[in-house]
Give the backbone structure.
Amino acid sequence: MLPLQGKHIIVGISGGIAAYKAPILVRLLVKAGAEVQCAVTEHALQFVTELTLETVSGHRVYSQLFDHTNPHSTEHISLKDWGDAMVVAPATANIIGKMANGIGDDALSTLLLSFRKPLFVCPAMNTQMLESFAYKRNIQYLRDNGVSVIESTTGELACGTSGNGRMEEPENIVRLMVSALSDNSPLSPSRHILITAGPTYEKIDAVRFIGNFSTGKMGYALAEELASRGCRISLISGPTHLSTLHPSIERIDIMSAREMYDAATRIFPSCDAAILSAAVADFRPENAPDYKIKKNNDSDGMTLNLIQNPDILATLGKIKSDKQILAGFALETDNELENAQKKLVKKNLDFIVLNSLHDKGAGFGHDTNKVTIIDRNGDIDNGELKSKQEVASDIADKLFAMMGV
Ligand code: CTP
């Protein structure tokens, strides 16, 4: 059976350049088994034609709030009843602002006001707009009210600059929607997997911390992939701007390595497996006062005393039972394979995912990654540069093979 068989999906399209990708999204949703109808803003039709959307969806496009050819001018009401889920792709800062503030002044925004079922938005805009205080407030308000935000990615933008603000690729939007909407999974949902993701922040004083550049994308992609395969996920996450979509993911937000350690050691005993992808700070300031440290004008330097954090992966390696599978990541710059193999043995892992910082497009902040998976039997699997979703799928395959699923 196709993954979206029988589902009615409304694709909302607002007026950004990424609207040219909307027909591809519609095609992919139809290929995945869904029946699709489109609702568009007037500006969206500057980038994509009604005829194209009608051809790929096989339905009339909903573009006018007051339509003289339709005797029932409450189409937004009947369409909201028809749809099982809705995705707005691309979602401009304008439509997100309208959604967050209850404005319904055209066909799409009125439909969104009345829609009460799973709703996904795929922001796409220029980086400055993405970083504006108004957008940040509005998108957070949507998240807080249960809207699934499929984050934009980093790359070249239509305005000629490069930065965050590109709409997620249609293939990945469909993959995430399938994951979030799927209710029939190949695995028994009783499998419980622990994942750690993102950076940790180690407090220096009331206003400063030591952190790292991890964005959490790899761990979140793993959580979505395993959830879509029927696992229950406990995702212990350091500070990131990412959101989770699948209902089987329980997210535990932490700040520091010690908080991550406490959560991981509490949850791990009830898990079938754990994959630790977080970039945990190895050290933390020895003293972190609850006030702001003042600069001392008599001295031109400052010394911070750091003490070691607990190694979460090594601790789980010590307490794991024969039935549990434990995997970690290794980020190496020199003697990569040898160091990763040593880490595998030292931390008592079943497999380790080696990330190399030498590879272009791999590592922190990128949407792609290139990894080598090494297991306890000495098998080495060298991967190509792939999207983090595809790497997550390879890691999930390895995990299932090691679990004997
Ligand atoms: N890790 C952890 N707790 C720590 C440090 C690391 O759980 N305090 C985990 C990471 O999540 C990752 C693995 O250990 O899965 C390896 O992390 P990495 O930074 O590559 O190695 P370290 O063990 O910290 O060793 P080194 O920094 O010396 O390479």
